[in-house]
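We modelled the chain as a single entity of 103 amino acids. Its sequence is:
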Amino acid sequence: MSLRALPILFLFAAALTLTPISGLAAVGLAVGIAPPATVVETPPPPPPPPANVWAPGYWAWDGTKYVWVPGSYVVAPFPGAVWVAGHWVRGGHGWGWHDGHWR
């Protein structure tokens, strides 16, 4: 490899290293703009098998604007599990996202 290629290789490696991983990007996220009103969704037919639960859609922040992520059926991890939907909460520095989880 030539010495001239090293700066380009270094910049490429730095860009990959500094690129946020989607699962980690939301840690400490505060958005200064309130999310839009929740979209009311009707779960699509046909009814799912008994182990499936409807997880409603939500507004996600893509770095510049809110985008709607549609709801879907998900398989409960254990009998009687209840899905607690993710939601935005207003805090001192803006709006923060709290992930959905099973209870």
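As a brief sanity check on the tokenised model: The helical segments are 5-18, 22-25. Residues 5-18 form the longest helix (14 residues).
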